[in-house]
Specification:
single chain; 263 residues; mainly beta; two-stranded antiparallel sheet; 2 helices; 16 strands; 52% strand; globular
């Protein structure tokens, strides 16, 4: 499998080089085209976050160890972005994650749609087969929409629904049924700042959670809290972004405080 993937990667790289070479050669004699090419390549972003715990939508997905969360994103057209995000526990925890996504933001930046393919590898079971997209594989496909109703008020509303994959309805004994659950996550978010600290407040719940994807309750509040963030000046030219989140899950009766560093 590694050899096959390596061959595919080499072909992709050669294709990109061949495709881009005419533009690069022409750009040497055209300053405007050169500027456009520079903008084209500068739209790639990458980095990583280090979190003391991996808490996602009020659910603990990282066990009891810190989590490193790398990402890479490419903005390939106005309003469009595609990326890969992952989460890996630094201890011996079975919960790992690799997500791919594509998103579109309207020109007025008030509406965003994101399609995400969540994948949870299990290195001892068949779910580690990434290219297995059968209905009982380790993939969960989600479509999310986010709306900013006001121009001058930083308030947003998001709705995300699982429409395919490993989110099946379960019976009383939690045995999976051959019916999609369509669990839906709904969140309201408000951002502001105080001095040099950014503040992000959120209230979220789940409905139609018949597959227990977000916990035991079918309809419940699962993610209430806030995140405070700021940049710490390390040197004259380098600032280190840090954040702390206080998260409460009323459905499970859990509370978390999570510290993060971004690079």
């Amino acid at each position: 499998m590694k050899t096959k993937i390596r061959k595919i990667s080499i072909k992709i790289i050669l294709f990109l080089l061949l495709f881009s070479s005419p533009f690069l050669l022409h750009a040497q004699n055209d300053s405007i085209r050169k500027s456009k090419i520079k903008t084209f390549f500068s739209s790639i972003d990458l980095g990583t976050d280090l979190k003391s715990r991996y808490i996602w939508r009020g659910i603990n997905l990282g066990g009891h160890t810190p989590s490193i969360q790398p990402y890479i994103e490419y903005n390939f057209a106005k309003g469009w972005a595609i990326g890969v995000w992952g989460a890996y526990s630094l201890g011996e925890q079975p919960n790992q994650e690799v997500d791919t996504y594509i998103s579109y933001t309207t020109s007025n930046e008030r509406l965003n749609f994101t399609f995400t393919n969540y994948f949870f590898p299990d290195y001892s079971l068949r779910n580690n087969h990434y290219f297995d997209f059968s209905n009982d594989s380790g993939h969960v496909l989600e479509l999310m929409g986010t709306y900013f109703p006001f121009k001058k008020i930083p308030l947003s509303f998001s709705v995300a629904t699982n429409f395919y994959g490993a989110d099946k309805q379960v019976d009383a004994e939690r045995n999976p049924l051959d019916k999609q659950s369509f669990s839906t996550y709904i969140e309201a978010n408000y951002t502001t700042s105080m001095a040099t600290v950014g503040l992000d407040f959120f209230v979220a719940g789940v409905i139609n959670n018949k597959g227990k994807y977000y916990g035991d309750d079918e309809n419940a509040f699962i993610n209430i809290g806030m995140t405070a963030s700021k940049d710490i000046q390390i040197t004259e030219r380098f600032k280190l972004p840090v954040d702390t989140s206080l998260i409460f899950n009323p459905s499970q009766g859990n509370i978390y405080i999570v510290f993060g560093i971004s690079l």
